[in-house]
Amino acid sequence: MKSYKELPNDAGSNIIGQVTAQANRLQKRLVSVKHTVAIVSGKGGVGKSALTANLATALTLNGNTVGGVDADINGPTLAKMMGVRNAELAYTPTGVNPAITTLGTKLISMDLLLAADDAPVLWNAHTQKDAFTWRSTMEVGALREFIADTEWGTLDYLLLDLPPGTDRLPNVVELIPNLGGVIIVTIPSEVSQLIVKKSVTMAQLLNVPIIGVVENMASYVCQHCGKEESLFSTEESPETAFQQVVLGKIPFDPRLARCSDNGTPYVAEYSDSLASKALMQVAQKIQRFFDKL
Ligand SMILES: Nc1ncnc2c1ncn2[C@@H]1O[C@H](COP(=O)(O)OP(=O)(O)OP(=O)(O)O)[C@@H](O)[C@H]1O
Ligand SMILES: [Mg+2]
Which residues surround ligand 2, an ion (CB under 5 A)? Predict the structure, then answer.
């Protein structure tokens, strides 16, 4: 899409037409997607991407066809976490084929389009000031193209891993007005709860169904003695803090962090672990949420 500098009086670019056509393509693409779910948190680093990767895998293991969208355009991590960083995208006349994990989950990420590991996303603008002004618009545009131009085929679930920030959800709702629901991720620190409460309010303001809250890093199981201990000292439970359904409390497991780094599916490799069992239960609750509709 051209930048506004190139568009005096539209300059024949038909900018409205371009955006409308893309929005129409997105709506057509979503017709074959049963349920769209955004994984959100106002707070950064709480495990949105790691949970998205594992929930996508868990839903796939349960027999669903699942796609993942790395909606973090500037800090994409999902391709690495799902082990498809080296996938070559195949382009067809009607779109691009997503990367596919060893277990069959489909994925699209900016990471698959960047030339080198250390390459940042640079928006094409005349000056950095212009790029700053237009960044949010360009990010939404890129996301719209991601979803619209990917050959998803028929999907039971499309999970969107959002970047941190309370203000990200409105962008997604602008693209997907009938978003199926959100999963709100927190950790048991007061700092996280303070910010994540704003995500709950934002979802309510936007009338997006809240599937529930997931408390990540809820505890730590000692690798030597097997004793479960708290990592944080929050007094308020997530049930009280958020007044929402709590879908699960996921312990911190160093093997989960390692699997995320290696791109291997933790829930499949360590299916007997406490964290895997909790993640599988969250996946079941997501399915039940939509089954009840
Ligand atoms: N339950 C867990 N056990 C062990 N490691 C975890 C767990 N949850 C997340 N991690 C690790 O913590 C780090 C941060 O997680 P992640 O990148 O998923 O957070 P995020 O919320 O997506 O961050 P950002 O806000 O930057 O997008 C990663 O290295 C991830 O593998
Ligand atoms: Mg992330």
Answer: 48-49
Report all structural domains of the chain as residue ranges with CATH numbers, in order of start.
4-291 (3.40.50.300)
Ligand 2: distance of its center to the CA of 239 in Å? 24
Cα(58) to ligand 2 centroid in Å equals: 18
* CB of 77 closer than 8 Å to CB of 93: no
DSSP 24-89: HHHHHHHTTEEEEEEEE-SSTTSSHHHHHHHHHHHHHHTT--EEEEE--SSS--HHHHTT-TTPPP
Residue nearest atom 6 in ligand 1 by C-alpha distance = 257
**What does pTM read for this prediction?**
0.93
pLDDT in tens, 156-183: 999 999 999 999 999 999 999 999 999 9
Is the shortest distance between the CB of 77 and ligand 1 below 6 Å? yes
